[in-house]
Write a structure and sequence with these properties.
Structural class: alpha+beta
Oligomer: single chain
Number of strands: 10
Number of helices: 11
Largest sheet: 4 strands, mixed
Mean pLDDT: 96
CATH topology of the largest domain: Butyryl-CoA Dehydrogenase, subunit A, domain 3
Number of domains: 3
CATH class of the largest domain: Mainly Alpha
CATH architecture of the largest domain: Up-down Bundle
Strand order of the largest sheet: 1-4-5-8
Order of helices and strands: HHHHHHEEEEEEEEHEEHHHH
Helix content: 40-55%
């Protein structure tokens, strides 16, 4: 509703290029990808060729070395708005959530080995934190990496791993010293071709059907010491540092998806007839849309500010938690109201609004549940 003023002409030109790419290379294939339970490997290569992956990676590793996070935000927003929710989760996770761990904490050999392939889309990246017995409680993970001299021996399992089935490289949270709790947590990079690493079949999920989410299993996987990210025992600290960007990315995708489904609903109510007139003429319809448009506009202003703060390295964990919590709650609300305004058609899978409803629900769970977001916000308030 309100004009946005955080993007320059260069940003808007980039936005148009992303929109054109999505219209040509993603939207036409999305229905098939939903049946396949994953995007095509070819789509990753096309994204890499277009320069849309890992844009912050320095030129020495094949990247564009773009320091402005607004370009990442635009990429996430365009994907979210398109309604192609699986790609809108998997692609940004690769670039904006997994890649920074390798760039910021990997040694030179690790960066040289993995970053160029991630930039090109030749290798798909995932991050493995959640376990069957440890969801948001990262301190409770059991996957262990035992020091064997020149390598770690990794045993355990991870679940609900986004990009898990297509992944070639995974950043894994492990316990290197279980007796120390959070201080015994480390991050290591595991190449999925390593002996003893296996993947489960993609889950048959409620939503995000075009997204390969699966379990990962580690059975005496030998991981070279050089694959340790940063220092041993500092993994929990690194996670807490990088999670602010992860939560902002989730929030941006959530709001863009809400904007997309709201626009589709506005168009639908103008065209749909009931009792001899357009349902857009009924007061309930008009008031519902007015309420949703207002809340979406308010959220847009807040998230734009968060993007600016993040660009200036001033977005703290509490603000990122607010963004993730509020935007995903709003996404679910908008999707639910949109289904209601569509009536019976809103429950039919071929309608975008049905997909939007199913895809939205998990947003309040991953990247830290919204209950955890509230706890983190409260800690900052009451410190």
């Amino acid at each position: 509703m309100l004009p946005r003023n955080i993007y320059s002409e260069e940003h808007l030109l980039f936005k148009k290029s992303v929109e054109d790419f999505v219209a040509k290379e993603i939207t036409p294939y999305h229905a098939q990808w939903e049946k396949d339970q994953m995007v095509s490997k070819e789509s990753w290569l096309k994204l890499g060729e277009a320069g849309f992956l890992c844009m912050q990676v320095p030129a020495e590793y094949g990247g564009l070395e773009i320091s402005d996070f607004k370009y990442n935000a635009i990429f996430t927003e365009v994907l979210g708005y398109s309604g192609c929710a699986g790609p809108a989760v998997g692609y940004p996770l690769h670039s904006d959530i997994v890649m920074p761990y390798i760039l910021h904490y990997g040694n030179e050999a690790t960066k040289q080995k993995y970053l160029p392939k991630m930039v090109l889309g030749e290798w798909v990246a995932a991050i493995a934190m959640t376990e069957p017995g440890a969801g948001s409680d990262l301190q409770a993970i059991k996957t262990a990496a035992v020091d064997k001299g020149d390598y770690y021996l990794v045993n355990g399992s991870k679940t609900f791993i986004t990009n898990g089935y297509l992944a070639n490289v995974v950043v894994v949270a492990v316990k290197t010293n279980p007796a120390l709790g959070a201080k015994g947590t480390s991050l290591i990079v595991i190449d999925t071709s390593m002996e003893g690493f296996t993947k489960g079949k993609p889950f048959d999920k409620m939503g995000l059907h075009a997204q390969d989410t699966c379990e990962l299993f580690f059975d005496n996987v030998k991981v070279p010491k050089e694959n340790l990210l940063g220092e041993e025992g500092q993994g929990f600290k690194y996670l807490m540092t990088e999670l602010a960007q992860e939560r902002l990315v989730v929030a941006l995708g959530a709001l863009a998806a809400a904007e997309g489904v709201l626009d589709k609903t506005v168009q639908y109510v103008k065209e749909r007839k009931a009792f001899g007139k357009s349902i857009s003429e009924f007061q309930n319809t008009r008031f519902k849309l007015a309420e949703l448009a207002t809340e979406v506009s308010i959220m847009r202003i807040f998230l734009d500010k968060c993007v600016e703060l993040h660009n200036d390295k001033q977005l703290d964990g509490a603000a990122a938690s607010m963004a993730k919590y509020a935007a995903t709650e709003l996404q679910c609300k908008v999707a639910d109201e949109a289904v209601q305004l569509h009536g019976g058609y809103g429950y039919i899978w071929e309608y975008d609004v049905a997909r939007a409803y199913a895809d939205a629900r998990v947003q309040r769970i991953y990247a830290g549940t919204n209950e955890i977001m509230k706890e983190l916000i409260a800690r900052k308030l009451l410190a």
